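Troubleshooting log. The previous structure file for this entry was overwritten by mistake, so regenerating from the original sequence record. Sequence copied from the archived sheet and checked twice against the printout by T.R.
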Amino acid sequence: MHNADDSRPLGKGMLIIFWILVLSVLTWGFSSWEAERNNPNANPNSTNFSSYREVVLDSNRQHHYVANGLINRSKVTFLLDTGATDVVIPEALANKLKLVKGASQVAHTANGNVRVYTTTIDRLQLGSIELKNVRASINPGMRGSAVLLGMSALSAVEFRQTNGQLILRQYL
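Regenerated output below.
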């Protein structure tokens, strides 16, 4: 005869597995939602016309423009910064991207003077906008992995802000 008490450990095990799965799905969903709030431009909206390429970015909850893009065909996250003279890359990321560290110089930032190193980005992409031979700086003191997309790149495109969106246009 089969005793009903024999199935209790199996039932408890299945209940534990169920709750682990539920918590895993909720955690994944929350982190995806949070990532979307921080970077609503994981896949920037691009349109190509005969005379120009246009990328429309939505601002995040802090009213910043954050977008995924490429440096030399490697995925990066850009934070658009019109106050930055150059594109600025954290040193750890620059090493992963195999960027060549050039001359040392002093950059004047909102946080004071910092030592940076010149470099050149062969190819920078944001949506369908593609820039070549972009002047950049490698910053050894910069934390995180976001790349500041400064004026050395932004001056090559027309941009305007309206209704929580930034419209970038590259004329061909």
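The radius of gyration is 23 Å. Archived copy saved in two places this time.
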